[in-house]
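Exercise: predict the structure of this protein bound to S-adenosylmethionine.
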Amino acid sequence: MRETYLHGHHDSVLRSHRWRTAENSAGYLLPRLAPGAHVLDVGCGPGTITVDLAARVPQGQVTGIDAAADVLGLAREEAERRGRANVRFETGDAYRLAFGDGTFDVVHAHQVLQHLSDPVAALTEMRRVGRPGGLVAARDSDYAGMIWYPEDPELTEWQDLYRRVARALGGEPDAGRRLLSWARAAGFTEVEASGSAWCYAAPGERSWWGTLWAERLTESPFGDRAVDHGLATRADLRRLAGAWLRWAASEDGWFLIPHGEILGRCGTLACNLSLVGSYFPCHRMGALGHRRNGG
Ligand SMILES: C[S@@+](CC[C@H](N)C(=O)[O-])C[C@H]1O[C@@H](n2cnc3c(N)ncnc32)[C@H](O)[C@@H]1O
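Solution:
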């Protein structure tokens, strides 16, 4: 793997990953999943979305890969707990997928491309392992687009710090708005782009989201990386954690996380060859169907 994953798999990170479902994180893809589809989930983390996808393709097969071997133990436990036999997990690298050309009907990545220094290379590799006519699906949040209430200058400072730390590690925190451009740069000629959001405003959601961010600042690798890169002191991190706890305690607390989404149609073999300078014609594929504007 070329880079360090910003968050690591600290409990405060896993608490948010394990809240994720196919419904709340891959809604734009679900209408396109055939019951017999073969799906690859790149950067699957603890696998809650992956196992949901497996439930959606009961006659198919889902493979989850992640660069971090330790988190795959949790993903396997999730599959076992839910009795899903059509899902397996392997270590792997988004830049060098260990699968032949055209292996999968759907190649999916949720909140992964934002952490990569070369998301276009990863999308190109995802496209390679998608079958002709298959789909590459990606969704990423957009940190600069996040909005919340009550206003608090220290939460604005947290937003700025997060974006600087992510960029110091080679990632792109404002990935959501860039997904369409990355897909086009990766050679997709048919791309459907949409957007959707998570919103936390109920008391339980506020407490969960606010306290996990307070912990990420003071106890997880995120805080260590901010300090190591000279972007914050431990005192800053404690102060910003306090802002998150204030937000979590506010009955007016509301937080919105916008996301970009893309569905890119994998090309024919001729299209793939055309990317490496072949003379084969590249047939333009039919429209992807109705456009979904996520809500
Ligand atoms: C934000 S988590 C998303 C996990 C899961 N997709 C979800 O949404 O809950 C990003 C995951 O990508 C993995 N990752 C980072 N770089 C990777 C790479 N080059 N290849 C494969 N996985 C990678 C990390 O280990 C981490 O588990």
